[in-house]
Fold:
Amino acid sequence: MKKTFMVLIVLVVFVGTSSSAMAHSGRTDKKGGHNCSAKSKQKGLCSGYHYHNKK
Structure:
């Protein structure tokens, strides 16, 4: 019983975190994108305008 409960908890946590992986804390324009901040460019995370949740 404990093993089943633990597996269920792991699945719930995994599903909850994987669906939020595409979340973005910044603002996006009506096209669903934005320009990178200077800080993000310095870190090498992006180089300019890019989209989020593009399907």
